[in-house]
Amino acid sequence: MYLYFMKPTTLKEIADKLNISTSTVSKALKNYPDVSKKTKDLVNDLAKTLNYKPNAFALNLRNKESKTIGLIIPEIVHHFFSSVIKGIVSEAEENGYLVIILQSNESYELEKKQIDLLLSQQVDGILISLANNTDDFTHLNEVIAQDKPLVMFDKIAKLVRCSKVIIDDRKAAYDATQHLIDSGCKKIAHFRGPHLAQNAIDRFLGYKKALLDNHLPFDESLVFFCQCDDDSFEEGVQNAQQLLKDHNDVDGIFITNDLIAIGAISAFNKLHIKIPEQIAIVGFSNWLMSAVISPSLTTVDQPGFLMGKTAFKQLYKEIKDRKANRPILFEEIILPTFLIKRASTKHRD
C-alpha cells in the first residue's frame, strides 16, 4: 500500500495558473481595494479548488508572534490541574492560541528544561504552577529577562516579579480548621504538603492560626508531612495509621488535598474508626471522588476551571500590552473559595 502526500498549494502556483503576480494573488485573498472584483473572484475560486491554506507560521513570524503559549503543571492527572487545563484551553481557543502542555512531575530539574524548551520554541508567553521542590528561580527570571510574559498560578514563588493567580490558602485553611473546631473537635492534626511549596506553607499557617485564635494548643507532633505526588493516596493511608499509633485521642484532621484525605478515610474505614463520630476530616480541592467516597468528604472548593481562565486572560493581556508597547502592571489575582460541608464532619448549623 502506498500513501501519497500532496504538497500544499502556494501563492506562486495560483499566480502562474492565472498568469498574474504573486503580490496580486496575495492582495486578492486579503480583499485589497485596488484589486478588481473579477480578479478577486478568480483567485478565491482557484484557491478553494486547490485547497490553498495560508502559511500561518510565516504570517505569525511577520507579526512577531507564534500564537502559542506554554503551560507547565506538576501533574496532569490531578483533578485540580485537569480543571485548570480545561479553563486555559477554552480561553486560549477563543483567542486563537494553541497551548503547549508540559508536565514537570514535581521535578525542579525537569521544570528548568521545560522553560528552556518553551523559550526556544518562541512561545508568546508562559503559564506555570511550580514543582514542589523548586527553590531556585533563576529559570523563571530568565523568562522575564527575555521580556516574555510569565503568569504563575496556584503554586507560586513570591520572590518572582510577575503576575500571579491564586486563592487565599491561609484563609481557606483557617476556615477549614475553624469548621472542625466549631463542630466540637479539640485535638486537630494536619496532614500538610512539602516544606518548599508556598501553598503548603500558607495552609499550615492558616491551620495553626485557627488553633491559637481558639486557645487550642499547637502541637508539632500532630503535623504530618506529605510529598503530594503520585503516592498521595498511600501517604494518606500511612499517615492515618501512624496518627492512631501516636495520638489515638485526635478527633479532627485538616488535610492539604483530597487524595490524601481519601487515603486517610480508607484507612480509618478498614480500622473501624467512625467518621465523623471519632475523627472528623476536612480535605482541600473538591475532587470528584470526594463526593462519592463513604463517608463523603467535607472539603475546600478550589476553583480550578476559573483559575485557568483567569490565568490565560492575564497572560493574554500582558502579551497584547507588550505588543502595543504599553507598560506592564503585574497583578496578584485572588480567587474565592468556600467550604463544602459533607458527611466527614459534624454540622451544628
What do you see in this structure?
With 349 residues, the chain is of the alpha/beta class. The protein has three domains: 11-54, no CATH class; 66-167 and 304-338, Rossmann fold; 169-302, Response regulator (Rossmann fold), CATH 3.40.50.2300. 44% of the residues lie in helices and 15% in strands. The chain contains 13 helices and twelve strands. The protein has helices at 11-18, 22-29, 37-49, 56-62, 79-94, 108-120, 138-145, 169-182, 198-213, 232-246, 258-270, 289-292, 304-323, and strands at residues 68-73, 98-103, 126-128, 150-153, 163-167, 188-192, 223-225, 252-255, 280-285, 298-301, 332-335, 338-340. The chain has a six-stranded parallel β-sheet, sandwiched between helices. β6, α9 (198-213) and β7 (223-225) form a beta-alpha-beta unit. α8 packs parallel to α9 and α10 crosses α11 (258-270). The longest helix has 20 residues, at 304-323. Residues 1-5 have low confidence and may be disordered.
List the helices and strands and how they pair.
Elements: H1 11-18, H2 22-29, H3 37-49, H4 56-62, E1 68-73, H5 79-94, E2 98-103, H6 108-120, E3 126-128, H7 138-145, E4 150-153, E5 163-167, H8 169-182, E6 188-192, H9 198-213, E7 223-225, H10 232-246, E8 252-255, H11 258-270, E9 280-285, H12 289-292, E10 298-301, H13 304-323, E11 332-335, E12 338-340
Parallel strand pairs: 1-2, 1-3, 3-4, 4-5, 5-11, 6-7, 6-8, 8-9, 9-10
Antiparallel strand pairs: 10-12
